[in-house]
Amino acid sequence: MFDAYLSIFIGVLPSMCAGILATFAVTIIFKTSYTTNFAQGVISALGAYVSVEITMMLGWPIWLSVILGIIACFAVGVAIDVGIFRQGRYVNTLGKQIISMGLISIIIGIIPFIFLVTKLEAVPQRPFISLTEGFKIGSTFVQYNTLISIGITGVLLALVFILLQKTKWGLSVRATASNEIVAGMMGVNTRIITAVSWGIAGGLGAVAAIIYVGNVSLSSGYIMTMTQINAFLAGILGGFATFYGPVIGCAIIYLLNALVGCVCVHVEGLSMWKAAIVYLIVMLLVLWKPQGLFGKRTVKKV
Amino acid sequence: MVKHSFSNLLGREQRQEESAIKALRAIKKIAQKPVLHFAIFAVILSVIKVLSEQKILQSSFATAVGSTIIFCIVGLGFCLLLGYSALASLGTAGFIAVGAYCAYFCLSQWQFTIGTAFLLAILVAFVVGVVVGFISLRIEGIYLAIVTLGVAQILKEAFAALKDTIRLTGKQITISWLNDMRLTTDHVYFILVIALFILMVLTKNLMDSPTGRAMLAMKNSTSAAQAFGISLLKYRLLAFVLSTIYAAIGGFLYMLFIRNASNSSDTLFALSTSLNILGAVIIGGTKSIWGTIGGTFIIYGIDKMFLQDIEFFRANPTLITLFCGILVIVVVMFFPGGLVQLLLEIKLKIKKLIVKIREGIYGKDIG
To answer: CB-based contacts of B249: which residues, under 8 Å, 6+ apart?
Structure first.
């Protein structure tokens, strides 16, 4: 029985890596642009499409495709901020949300025109290393692909957190996040900070999607929707007030998923409602702590 | 004597003139009533169906109009939510699925009558709306979109696990008190028109009622609305539940009209439907019923009525999505009032132009 549980927990790890990266991307945009970016999922799917197109249609090596995918999404992120969000600075919060929803439609509409991969009947999974390679813990099979995914996620997260805490750039990001106008008065070039944040969010999203399509075949531009939902919920659960809160929240959500999955092994017909149960637990947690687990109480002055 | 009859004549003429003016005023008053406009719109929609039955219009055209009417109904609910309470939801597709699956299970599996099935669909939508709304609206307004996005995905997956493709046959859609008369799609078309008319009137009345004004106040400034004693949670919840019910009605009618829907191939229950409805409402003008209906006809109607006949658009179905996305962003950034406001501005400009031309011809009016 223990082996079955272990395999469930190991099985959830790759999507958890993707989720954590997506969560960080959502958080950095939420903090610098004050909006929930609903297009995050499709932007990262765009990265996956670039990467899959390059490996499948051009036959280039996979590491190159990953790098090009990241660069493409970085560029798309910066372009969105410079081209759209910077022009719409005076649009209210709801308007910004709606702009990001409109972006989903644009990207979904554009994907079939750019990528030849969409003409194929089905795109196979595209892991870093063949999924059959791996080793065993007891009787549980662990793929090398999972380990690589964890490694990439860990390195990227560590890099971004060190940048945020130790560098001048990180200081200006944190200043912009806490108050854009005051940060601008103090000499921070908030325009560049916001644009680069969008770029980084796009790049992290691309990595997330590339990790995700290692285990799931790339079927449509909506492939990252579930990951994105988890990322948003993680943000609410952890509280958008800090950078680490949402990331921990995301880990909690995926571990809860695995835990409920373990229960579902014993109860028949429950697996259909797995996601619903997890969300219900998360929502109850949020009702208990409306600011999030690591949130700070904000006082609104009128 | 002569004088007397003359004055009598004058009086009669005056009276006639007065009564004519009175009648004209009364007609004008009636003509300004929105209900009459809605009724005229419903008659036009019915005429389209009649013309298509007489083979003057293609029958596919009427079907396209019919399915657009369904999305108009869903859009009206969304208009209440977005235009009157400033809340954005991404769960519309999930709530359409609630209505559609209710119709399927009640009519095909459990053999309920249509009335019972309809009431049950509304009840289920009400319960779902209250639960989702109560949890998400308590946290903060901007989180509603996130939570509804998740709820829609859960609903879609759960329904897909229950039954992937749902189909109703003509045998299952009967009216018991009319000797089990079978409802054909032609009948359902007129039901759609009537439903749209009723919902338009209801929505208009709600918008003009104190409730509508409270919602509008809440949209413009939450703090000011609270200061006037408006309970944010109550009115937000009301708007959200209403939009959920409208979407469920849309899904129910969709099942009666189109008769089949699939979770895997169809995009009806996917996120794109929610986004298109949102786009339609924003493009038309969030606060206006006519704007919502115009926007829906732009997003759904033009595509289904005209573009499907052109090979290029049939080969690239995502083109309309792209078009919708671009329009949404342009409207949000530059024309917050939507198409309706644009038309109003054009009307004002034309009026100004006419005044200018008059001045050019007759000279400036000094008095």
So the answer is: B73, B99, B118, B121, B122, B125, B195, B199
Q: Which residues of A touch B142 (CB under 8 A)?
A: 36, 93-94, 97
Task: Find out whether A214 and A34 touch, Cβ atoms under 8 Å.
Answer: no
| Cα A57 to Cα A53, A74, A212, distances in angstroms | 5, 22, 20
Question: What contacts A234, CB < 8 A, 6 or more positions away?
Answer: A19, A23, A246, A247, A249, A250, A252, A253
- Cα B220 from Cα B79, distance rounded (Å): 15
Among B136, B162, B325, the residue with its CB nearest the CB of A102 is B325
Domain boundaries, chain A: 14-222
Catalogue the long-range contacts made by B354-358 (C-beta closer than 8 Å, 24 or more residues apart).
none
Count Cβ–Cβ pairs < 8 Å, chain A vs chain B. Answer: 132
- CA nearest to A68, candidates A84, A83, A57: A57
Please give the mean pLDDT across all residues of chain B: 86
Contact between B135 and A95 using a beta-carbon 8 Å cutoff: no
Given this structure, which CATH class describes domain B37-332? mainly alpha
**Residue A26 β-bridge partners:** none
Least confident of B75-79, B199-203, B314-318: B314-318
ipTM, two decimals: 0.84
The conformational region for residue A297 under phi > 0 = left, psi -120 to 50 = alpha, else beta, is beta
Q: Token digits for A23?
A: 């969560």
User: In this structure, what is the dihedral angle of CA atoms A112, A117, A120, A123, given to the nearest 10 degrees?
Assistant: -120
CA distances, B163 to each of A105, A271, B100, B169, B248 (Å) = 28, 15, 12, 16, 18
The beta-carbon neighbor of A290 closest among B139, B154, B162 is: B139
Amino acid at B269: F
Between chains, do B329 and A106 touch, taking CB under 8 Å as contact? yes
Q: Which of B145, B223, B279 sits opposite A97 (nearest CB)?
A: B145
Write out the two tokens for B21. Answer: 């003016």
What is the end-to-end Cα distance of chain B in Å, rounded?
44
Backbone angles phi, psi at A8, to 5 degrees: -65, -45
Query: Is residue A35 helix, strand or coil?
Result: coil
Tell whether A95 is within 8 A of chain B (Cβ).
Answer: yes
Give whole-number Cα distances, A221 to A35, A112, A115, A281, B315, in Å: 22, 9, 11, 29, 18
Encode pLDDT of A171-203 as tens digits.
998 898 888 888 889 888 888 988 999 999 999
Contacts of B87 in chain A (CB under 8 A): 94
